[in-house]
Amino acid sequence: MLQIFKIISLLFLEAMRRELIAREALCRRKPLLLTMSEATTLLNVSDHYLGTLLDSGVIPSEQTGAARYVPFPAAVAFKESMEAKRLAVLDELTREAQALRLGY
Questions:
Q1: Which DSSP state fits 12?
Q2: pTM, 2 dp
Q3: What are the pLDDT digits (tens) for 4-56?
Q4: Do the Cβ atoms of 60 and 71 come closer than 8 Å?
């Protein structure tokens, strides 16, 4: 019985060691980078407008040689902020239409 306990303990320790190695590797991993094409598709914008956003620093980017990449979390944050602004404007327009009794 003691032998089985030692084997189980060793297996558990090995599993924990592997888990810690995997977690450490995840912490060092760079965020997922999107190509310009992938970012324009995700954001539903033109190449030119995305370039303007990147040049102005509204969305951060990384450059490797001639290629530019957009961090996925930054693209998603921009998309969510634009959606929130769009919904706020739609709410305001709805309130104005209701105040003017336009049937909305």
A1: H
A2: 0.65
A3: 767 777 676 677 778 767 766 666 656 688 999 999 999 999 999 999 999 99
A4: yes
* Alpha carbon distances (Å) from 46 to 25, 57, 65: 35, 17, 22
Chain CA centroid to CA 49, Å: 19
Residue 1 has what pLDDT? 57
Cα–Cα dist 72/84, whole Å = 18
Tokens of 54: 């990147």
35 bridge partner residues: 69
3-state SS assignment for residue 63? strand
Compute the distance between CA of residue 66 and CA of residue 52 in angstroms, rounded to an integer.
Answer: 16
Which pLDDT band holds residue 70 (cuts at 50, 70, 90)?
A: very high
